[in-house]
Amino acid sequence: MRMNRRQLLSWLAAAPLLAKTQFSLANDKQRITQQLMKQQAEQLYASAAKKTGGGYYLSFFNGLGQEQTSHPLPSRAHHILADSKRGWLFTIARRPGEFIDIYDYRNNRPLAHLKVQPNHYLQGHALLSPDGRYLYTSETSLKDDQGHLVVRDLENKFKPVNKLATGGIEPHEFLWMPDGKTLVVANGGIATEGRKKLNLETMQSSLVYLNSQTDEIIEKQQLADEYHQCSLRHLDVANNGQVVVALQYQGHPADQVPLVLAHKQGEALETLAMPELIRSQLQQYCGSACFDSSGQFAAVSSPRGNQVMLWDMQQRSFLSSIYAADGCGLAATQKEGEFLVSTGRGKVYQLSALTGNKQLLQLQDGNLWHWDNHLTAVT
């Protein structure tokens, strides 16, 4: 089609404006990309890890996959707790552990190495008080196998100042509810001697809501007796108070039992449904549980089943399962519906609950590490 004189003049007049608009859009896109890369560079993730060739470490990297540093540990660890106010990382020994290692990640220097009090051992998880002054750790007393949350004063030489009874055996992961006063605790229910399990025939796990100020049990939830060998171990809490719990079953491998639960205070425990084809692959073992940044989506990993399951928690509906060989550690990114999963094979993937896609994060030194069970976003 031929262009007449009027059309040609109009096009020539508009061309500089179009060129300017395209240039502006390109600049905007570049600016957004740079801003995103800056955010990813500043976002740190920490995990306990075993180094290829031997030795246990605290290691952390940023959202671009760049390793920041690594710090040697005396033995295998479980959970890393971040104190972004002080710039500290607390590494908690794997059950039945005896050490708490404290590292200043901003200045790349070790700060302290604590030992638990006599006749106690650590259950692998820790939490800070809402004001950041006190460190809580889940522990078991060797005298009676009962679970406690031991409270240490970070401003007074890390001395133990309180002990809260959890109302069960083997408290594992525990978190604050949105009110900042109530603790929700997963009591695994397994009495042990070292790593040996002693009471599988009579074990009873529970989910407990505990008043941190009075040590009063506000609510205690247990599964039906037929599921008493389901061990509630890992959990996460959304901003609206919804809890998701990952279980590990101690009974027969072919039993049909709950492996992921949802709960809200005052209601009954609810099993989160998943396709039987997926459930049958999990080997009765779920690892980490994690809500995304919006609180709408939840992820639960199964390192033995090589799967990460995703749910829409508003609808309580199963979304998808994504393959991740030996994937266990989970952390939410700043993006809605997005998680990172770390694996025992040294990989880290970005997963999207919105699309069901995964993308490998290119770690600078990923071949050096075998990531342990948990991944912590250091905000």
Automatic annotation (TrEMBL):
The lineage of its organism: Bacteria, Pseudomonadati, Pseudomonadota, Gammaproteobacteria, Oceanospirillales. It comes from Marinospirillum insulare. Residues 1-26 form the signal peptide. This is DUF1513 domain-containing protein. Pfam families: DUF1513. The keyword Signal applies. InterPro entries: Quino_amine_DH_bsu, UCP028101, WD40/YVTN_repeat-like_dom_sf. Keywords: Signal.
